[in-house]
Structures are given as C-alpha cells and as structure tokens.
Sequence to fold (228 residues):
Amino acid sequence: MPANTTEQLKRLRSSSPYSSRIIKAGALIGDTKTLLSHWDVDASVEENINRVRRDNVFGKASRSRVEDILAIFRQRYLAEKSVTKALVTLVRRKFPTAALERLFYFHSARADQLLHDAVTEILVPMRTRGLVDINAQEFQRSLAKWVDEGMTTGHWSKPTITRIAQGLLSALRDFGILQGAVNKKIAPAYFPVESFAYLVFYLKRHQPSGAKLIELSDWKLFFLSRKG
Fold:
C-alpha cells in the first residue's frame, strides 16, 4: 500500500465510527435488567457503579468481565441521566418485555455506530429488495469493505471480522431484529406502540423540528421510512 494511502487510512481511523466492542458485549438483555433493577436514581453513576462492583449484582466470576459489561452499559444507558431514570422506572414497573427490549436495542444502536449501520446500511437495503435470509459470507464482506475504506478503529484481520460479524448477528437476534439460531433471517417487523411512543418523545427532545424528526436514520433501525 502506498505511504500516502496508509497515512490517509490512519487519519480516517483516528476518527472512525466503528469499533470491535460488540465482541465483548452482545445484547446483554438479562444483565441490563439486573443493572437497572438495582439502580439508585438518587445516587451518582459512579456511586452506583461502585456498588454494582462491590455487590457483584451480575453474579460474574470474572472481574474483567464485569468491567467489560459496565463499560458497555456506560455508553448505552448511562450517558443521559434522563434515559437512565426512564429505563429504571420502566423496568421496575414491569413495562412489556417486547417493548422494553426494543428500547434496549435502540439505545445500544445509538451508542454503537457499527451496530447501527449494520442494520441501516446492510439489513434495511436487503429487506427493501425483499431479501430476508442472512448470508454470513456476504455480511462479512460488507464489514471487510468498511475496513478497507478506513471506517474502523484499526485494521481488522479476517478472523476478527468473522468474530465481529458473529457478535453483531447474535446481538441482533437477541434484540429480536433477526431470528434463527444458526441460519439467521430478518424477523418480521414488530414495533410495539409503547416503544414507538417512547422513541417519539426521546427523539423530539433531540430534534425539535418535526420535518427533520421524520428524516432521522433512527427510524431505519425498525425498518421504518417516511414512505412507510
């Protein structure tokens, strides 16, 4: 590879959106509910995190595993106090499971650009073409293309791409976006009205313009578009 091309890739990756964090944490739905059910909304994030560590609320034998989970949860659910408080309230008030898991998926995808774009840039175009069966090799080739374009935090080897693809597909299955234990396919679109109401309220706070609101790529996470 020419030296100037190498330098360009380094500059791109220094601000690239795609990381390999999905390898360390998939959907983690059970652990998410555990964390939120133990959360003290009157205490700070650090106070809560320290208590979670001390009490080992996840019941994990590995301290490093707990740290991996907490790092992911910071990004997904703890960056906005209002989001944390809302999710804690919904978990404790027995919000419908399917609706709650859609919210976990939504915030996870917003926190991880790779997860977000795997859906909006790979799965959505597939579904638009009437395709639902996931070809693992094709999926990996899409990731490899992003690597070649300098869209990742570093160069991912072929085995790493395979692991990341597996992590993405497994997480999306656990979130209900895909279905199938081995041979995965895009699941029938299902967006509970409770989840929809939450998203409208959340996104409206971040984008007051109604015209711009309906153009947000976030709707694509649920295979929704302005055209319906």
About this structure: Strands lie at 178-179, 185-186. The longest strand covers residues 178-179. The chain is about 60% helix and 0% strand.
